Amino acid sequence: MPESPEVEALGRFLDDHLAGRTVAGAHLVSVHALKTYDPPLGALAGRAFDGVGRHGKFLDLRAGELHLVVHLARAGWVRWSDRVPTAPPRPGKGPLALRVRLAEPPGAGFDVTEAGSQKHLAVYVVTDPREVPGIARLGPDPLSAAFTPASFAGALQGERRQIKGVLRDQSVLAGIGNAYSDEILHTARLSPFKPASGLCEEEVARLYEVIGATLTDAVERCRGLAPEELKAAKKSGLRVHGRTGEPCPVCGDTIREVSFSDSALQYCPTCQTGGKVLADRRLSRLLK
User: Fold this and answer.
1) Which CATH class is domain 4-136?
2) 73 HSE (CA, 13 A, CB side)
3) Is the pTM of the predicted complex or chain greater than 0.70?
4) What CA–CA distance (Å, rounded) separates 86 from 107?
5) What rounded mean pLDDT belongs to the chain?
6) What is the DSSP string of 116-154?
7) Does residue 138 contact residue 174 with C-beta atoms inside 8 Å?
8) Which numeric CATH code is attached to 149-287?
9) 175-218: per-residue pLDDT in tens?
């Protein structure tokens, strides 16, 4: 799933390639991806893009008073091409969800795609990004000035949920997903199952610093990369997420996994849980 560093890099790439260029046409392939109907998608035609921004994991492509907002969900991506087909794409079962073709340079444009059978990608055309429910609910972005030690400590007060879930809650912090929350907790030496309200003052301060450093490092790692290079760059920078069974790069212990119905987390017992191996609920059910 693209998280804030990858969406930030995608936004910068698109900003460089789209600013000042006029939309020749926007063609929807996946009807379920479009979540708004007024203004219509066709209203983008003839308008020039004047910038690309980011709200958490949402891309915001500005075209005058209109905003083309895209949430890539788990398996969505943006693919740039110097020559997209001129004929409107036909609806089908493939990954293509949306195609935007530019008037200049002739033939250039980009596709928004989504792999897999579960379709959660979302596209909005709005006059104000805050009209998008997911954006309206966003908490402070850890890469912005709004993310301060005081605001972070305040968000954790009285929070009974496990810290892993709190970090992924977009209404608490915008832009962190499954992968970077694993990386952050490993670097901060915290169990993903520890209640957020149970963190001591020193742990809160350490976690705050690690969040900023982890995301900043990831953004720098992605700087200047083309969209097709970003997924590999993200994976290469992960130390524990997606590396079940491999040695921890800090202590050498085996990286473990806890599986859920639709996701999994990875952690190091030595670095994070005092050597305790957390129960894998899915495996436990199989052993009964």
Assistant:
1) alpha beta
2) 16
3) yes
4) 7
5) 94
6) SS----EEEEESSGGGSHHHHT----TTSTT--HHHHHH
7) yes
8) 1.10.8.50
9) 999 999 999 999 999 999 999 999 999 999 999 999 999 999 99
